[in-house]
Amino acid sequence: MKKSLIVSSFCSVTGKEVTVNNKVIYTGSGNNFKDLSNDIYKNFPLDYPKFHKMDNLCKLGFLSVEILLRDKDPGQKYPGDQIGVILMNSASSLDTDRRHQHTLSDRENYFPSPSIFVYTLPNVVIGEICIRHKFYGEGNFFVAEKFNTDFLIGYIEELFECNAIQCCISGWVELDGDDFESLVFLIEKPDNTDTGIVNFEPDVIRKIYEKLK
Amino acid sequence: VSDVFIASDNIITSLGFTTIENARNMLAGNTGIRLTEDKHIAPYPFYASLIDSSQLHSGFSLIDNPDHFSRFEQMSVCSIKDALSGTEIDCADPDTLFILSTTKGNIDLLESENKDRYGQERIYLWSTARLIQRFFNFRNEPVVISNACISGVQAIITGAHLIRAGIYDTVIINGTDIVSEFVLSGFNSFKSLSTGPCRPFDKTRDGLSLGEGSGTIILTSKPSLSKSKEKMLVGEGFTTNDANHISGPSRTGEGLFLAINSLLKRASAEIDFISAHGTATLYNDEMEAIAITRAGLQSVPVNSFKGYWGHTLGAAGIIESVMSVYSLRNNVLINTLGYHEMGLTNPLAIIDGVTRKEITNCLKIASGFGGCNAAILFCKK
Fold first, then answer.
1. Angle formed by the axes of helices A56-68 and A94-102, to 10°?
2. Most buried among B152, B168, B173, B298, using CB within 10 Å?
3. Are the Cβ atoms of B125 and A143 closer than 8 angstroms?
4. How far apart are CA A79 and CA B130, in angstroms?
């Protein structure tokens, strides 16, 4: 039987809380994503001015991966073109889509903005993560009604199996209006890590996700 | 590891509702890009390749009631239905998966006059995919792939991975996008739109033309499912990220070069032609030329199909792959419509006339916002 992939670390951002490997490491004081994301940015602290230009979906994905990789930068261990970023959500980039559509509401007087339009694609969050960490490997953004762990894990296993990647950042990064939740994983082959937290298997991952609710 | 065969396909664009109809128009040198005035899409006249609404309506009426399906859904259903007719596939087979490739799906439902037309849930890409899944009675939960302009190529690469992994036997991939006020205004705000029909790789090129389209490609490990005699294969495929800029192509073509290079390292095959992304923006075409040159493929014949049906976004990777496979089947290299004079710092061997010759392997490439790139190989067995 083939050995399952290993989760070396995972991070969630939901409500007011940030957790790493199931431990709460930060609790925000505000009431919405804007407050939480600004709090996290200041608290950790991050010095990355591009952050302030990002839309909310990108901020959520970016912060989740920043915290995930804080003590475990896979760029130290693997070449950048061997590190993939594979994400999934339900609302695609709809939050920013609505903002772009809003700029078109008055046809006599309309000023669509390129700085909003560029974020009307969900995979831009992958781009932001790759730019920050110099990851050049496989990228894919899936949209599904719910976090489809069976599909995602089968696909990622095949990417490892055919040696397209040696390391992967993957998970669920969902933002739709005021609602948001993220859960991201750092995934490696069992032979390459001795610090595994859990196996990257559908039931295991589903349970971690359900605990967030 | 099983081979991945192409069982069947379809293309729906302004140039026709089947792959063959599109090919005939392309070989005759016809473009579907026209100057259009439509106040629902833009307050100013614009060049785009639009599917004829009455043809779509009457075509779909033969299948189901057009009042219950959006424009996007009608295109997608028509395309899948035509592709399925070339196969013996049982849609309800548990080893069959449906993948939808799109950038924006039913995005016109965000417009205030369309808000209540089909209910708000239909704006979600997964909801659109579910509707199509139920229509065809596909057994498994569908997957949506949304990776900007590489979505279609990425969907084919993903489908091939899933078949090689033995997770599914057959993957039905449809790529669709419509031309909407949303998308046209966005590209216009980027000043990316051409002042006339787009001119890929040409000295005078000044931007892209948008198009709408739907394409379907059916991949399978069971070639007996196909009614076609000739066996066409999906080869290696890779995606990469430039890690450079979210909206501007890399100046070194790094990501695209890495994707092509990974593919060349694995595939022993000689590349007979390249189907480029070739959007006809100044920067995209330059970037592709740099990446192709860095990979040592600058003397391989290369074309862009964008001059025929514009940039069809999430459909582009599918319909351009299907047309590349048509080229392989029929041993014909298709002209790069709109190209007249070399406009690249690193010159490429642009296909500037229809050429009949024996060809076996095609490299298809694509790049998009978010810094994503894809490269895939198609081969004649």
1. 150
2. B152
3. yes
4. 38
Quick one: average pLDDT of B274-281? Answer: 98
Task: Say if the Cβ atoms of A143 and B146 lie within 8 Å.
Answer: yes
A134 to B146: CB separation less than 8 angstroms, yes or no: no
Residue numbers in A near B182 (CB within 8 A): 97, 100-101, 104, 120
CA atoms of B216 and B323, how far apart (whole Å): 11
| pLDDT band (50, 70, 90) for residue B125 | very high
Chain B nearest CA to A29, separation (Å): 31
Query: What pLDDT digit, counting tens, does each position of A169-191 carry?
Result: 999 999 999 999 999 999 999 98
pLDDT in tens, B285-317: 999 999 999 999 999 999 999 999 999 999 999
Give the strands of the sheet with B46-49, arranged side by side. B33-36, B46-49, B210-211
> Which residue is it, tokens 């196996």?
A199
C-alpha B138 chain-centroid distance: 22
Structure token digits, residue B171: 């993957």
Looking at beta carbons, which residues of chain B come within 8 Å of A87?
A: none
The C-alpha of B106 sits at a distance from chain A's nearest C-alpha, in angstroms, of: 11
Record the pTM. 0.98
If one counts every other C-beta atom within 10 angstroms of the C-beta of residue A50, the result is 12
Q: How far apart are the first and last CA of chain B?
A: 16
B174 token code pair: 């449809």
Burial class of B331 by CB neighbour count within 10 A (0 to 12, 13 to 18, 19+): middle
Comparing CA positions, the residue from B45, B39, B66 lying closest to residue B55 is B66
Tell me which H or E stretch contains A184: strand A179-188
pLDDT in tens, B51-91: 999 999 999 999 999 999 999 999 999 999 999 999 999 99
CA distance A31 to chain B (A): 26
What stretches of B50-101 adopt beta strand conformation (E)?
Answer: 96-101
Per-residue tokens: B194? 């051409």
Contact between B139 and B145 (Cβ < 8 Å)? no
**pLDDT tens across B2-43, in order?**
899 999 999 999 999 999 999 999 999 999 999 999 999 999
Best CA proximity match to B372, nearest among B295, B296, B302, B277: B277
Which pLDDT belongs to residue A195?
A: 76
